[in-house]
Amino acid sequence: MKRSPFSTSSHATEERLDPAIQAELDQLDAALRGQPIVDETLAALVRDVQATAPVMPSELRERLRDDVAEGFGRRRFGRPRGAGASAAGRTRGRSGGRLLSGGLAATFVVIALMGVGTAALVTQSEDQLDSMSVSETASGPISGGSLPSEDMAARAPEPMSAAPRSSESSGGGSASSAASGPTSTAAGGDSAPGGGSSPNIEKLTPKQRELVDRTLAAQAKARSAITSGGATPPTGTRRVEQSVEMRVRVKNGEIDEASQKVESIVRQGGGYVADSRVSMGTRGSGNALFSLKVASSKLDATMQRLADLGTVTRQQQASRDITSSFDSVQRRLSDNAEVRRALSKALAKAETAGQIASLKSRLADNRRTRESLERQLAQLRTRTDLTDIALTLRAPSSESAASEDDDGSWSIGDAVSDAGTALGTVTGVLLVGGAILLPFALLGAAGWAVYRMRRKRRREAALDA
Amino acid sequence: MAAARPPRLEFDALYRTTAADVYAYVVSLVGDAATAEDVTALAFERAYRKRRSFDARRGTPRQWLFTIARNAGLDELRRRKRSAVPVPDAGDRVSGAARADGTADDPGAERSDAVRAAIASLHPRDRDLIALKFYAGLSNAEIASTLGISESNAGTRLHRALGALREACS
After folding, report:
1. Which residue from A415, A387, A68 is spatially nearest to A241, judged by alpha carbons?
2. Which of chain B's ends, N or C, has fewer CB atoms near its CB within 10 Å?
3. CA B9: distance to chain centroid?
4. Contact check, Cβ <8 Å, B159/A21
5. What span, in angstroms and rounded, lies between the C-alpha atoms of B144 and B152?
């Protein structure tokens, strides 16, 4: 068998053929068409080669004709020979190829779905974690949780804890203050009006609701223990700094009126408005942000009045135990007083000018220390006597308000809105799915290209015996 | 203005006009008549199943079909190489069959045997080109497209294969 002298590489030059070669090929084409040519040898060769062309068996011709007519659907090729087995193998190979393709496609779809599902779960988990972190911090040492108040005193005092009074709420009636009882550290605080009503916790899971209830109960218990003391409680009484975040949705067009009421409510609460920003939108919408300071002893009553401005959509209360700081300052003040008394006695007995000067200097230092400690104590007292409230009032636009005040019937507007929401969701899912699938698709395309190239190379290699 | 719809592949007509040529080409490629029958049938089946993917802009139906047949034949050759099945010598087998028909003393038959032997003695790539030209009846451009090479390269290869065939027949 002779080896072909030419290269096997594909796509060689695009040069024009040599005229002599082209002329011979033209003659070959003419001879194959049965036309007379000058090169008799070539003409004879063409005739001889054509004469040796293998003849298709009539049986195969008929069988194939039938199969073409039937669309190759009813019978598979294969003969009871070795080659027949290979045909069956090829059929299996095709089936395997289809299975492989189907499997790959299914894998991609599953990966995409898993990706979308995971993204959704992650988002949901993050939401849940957000809410649970609030709930869990609510079980901190001061806010109560499941810990008895006696145990709280033995715990590290400083961590901030938050007790959600209500979760995000899109509707429903006005939120009432939580049944948490008095929150102030001073004695004789206002009790929460309507204390028996629960906060807007309809959207909480039963476990979360139970946790909130337990937290609030423990909080009330802790507060009642704390408030047994006076304005300057003795060592051992808990001093609690509190902060509240509250969002209230007011009726359309009432943002201004509600803002004015806030100032009145805060004055009643023994506090003041530290900062306020009111912005009015179109069609009666608007937002108002307040930074309020109210007497901790009147916190619940104040919150109830603020809640009555509209519908509470979010309410979160945090507390920080600063008892140790308070006690520390008080102890240092007490020590300072003892030192002062001792220095005074010593000064009274001093005889030399040097002693007197030294003692006076120490007394002056003692006075400065006392003044500093008293300032610290005053600040701590302010932090416990006044509670920060971050209040947000929001008045939706008339359209939003209309939808929020929906009577429950399903209108064409609702349908359009739902369709828009559904379209947005579907688009989002498709985008996320596409983003997940794109790398796989690119990899698949690259793999497919490589596979085709390798397959072509392997096929051509079959001719290299 | 609507784009012109590509002509639909008339598979029956394609089969009628190409069946014999496909078989002849496949025999030359795989060197075994029995295997060639299966490969021919497989090629038509593949073509039938892929007929909707035929794109007239990329070649003629005949060239498309012979590309499929060639791939099927090459797959068979690869399979046989993998399973270590010896490839029958096409020249020996076909000429032997001819002699069994009692035509050995015929001068025309002797010439045919010599030509078959010459074709069988060619390098498989040369034989493939000769078969694509003589049995499949493809133009140089169609051969180039089938092999995935340029037309000038196909012409050069064909010229050399023809020279090898001339030499083998002389």
Report:
1. A387
2. N
3. 21
4. yes
5. 8
Cβ burial of A8 (10 Å; 0-12, 13-18, 19+) is middle
Does B48 contact A5 at a Cβ distance shorter than 8 Å? no
Cα(A445)–Cα(A458) distance, rounded to whole angstroms? 20
More confident call, A31 vs A204: A31
- In this structure, are residues B161 and B130 in contact, taking their beta carbons and an 8 Å threshold? yes
Strand partners, A294: A387
Amino acid at A247: R
Is the CB of A6 less than 8 angstroms away from the CB of B160? yes
For residue B88, the chain A residues in CB contact (below 8 A) are none
pLDDT for A319 equals 87
Determine whether the interchain pair B74/A5 forms a contact, defined as Cβ–Cβ distance below 8 Å.
no
Residues of A in contact with B145 (CB under 8 A): none
A53/B135 Cβ within 8 A = yes
Residue-wise pLDDT tens digits, A45-64: 899 898 888 999 989 988 89
Bridge partners of residue A277, in order along the sequence? A289
Q: What pLDDT sits at residue A30? A: 92
Please check whether residue A107 is in contact with residue A287, taking contact to mean a CB–CB distance below 8 angstroms.
no
> What tokens does B2 get?
């609507």
- Look up residue A353 and give its amino acid: A
User: Do A390 and A246 touch, CB atoms closer than 8 A?
Assistant: yes
Inter-residue contact A242 to A183 (CB < 8 Å): yes
Q: Looking at residue B60, what DSSP letter applies? A: -
Number of Cβ within 10 Å of residue A332's Cβ equals 16
> A10 falls in which pLDDT band (50, 70, 90)?
very low
Give the pLDDT confidence score for residue B105 in this predicted structure: 56
Residue A246 has phi, psi (to 5 degrees) of -140, 135
How many Å apart are CA A184 and CA A296, to the nearest integer? 4
In A, which residues are within 8 Å of B112 by CB distance? 48, 51-52
Say if CB A230 and CB A156 are below 8 A apart. Answer: no
> Which of B51, B152, B158 is best to mutate for the A interface (most A CBs within 10 A)?
B152
For A90-114, b/e burial (b = at least 16 CB within 10 A) is beeeeeeeeeeeeeeeeebeeebee
The low-confidence residues of chain B, meaning pLDDT below 50, are 1-2, 86-104
Indicate yes or no: CB of A60 within 8 angstroms of CB of B23.
Answer: yes
CB contact under 8 A, B125 and A32: no
Alpha helices, H only, B31-150 = 33-49, 61-82, 90-100, 107-121, 124-134, 140-147
User: What's the mean pLDDT in A236-254?
Assistant: 85
Whether residue A184 contacts residue A291, with contact meaning beta carbons closer than 8 Å, is answered with no
Residue of B nearest to A63 (CA): B41
Task: Name which of A49, A86, A459 is nearest B115 (Cβ-Cβ).
Answer: A49
What's the mean pLDDT when you consider all of chain A? Answer: 72
Q: Calculate what percentage of chain A has a pLDDT beyond 70.
A: 61
Q: Which residue of B has its CA nearest to A458?
A: B78
**Cα-based torsion angle of the residue sequence A6, A7, A8, A14 in order, rounded to the nearest 10 degrees:** -100
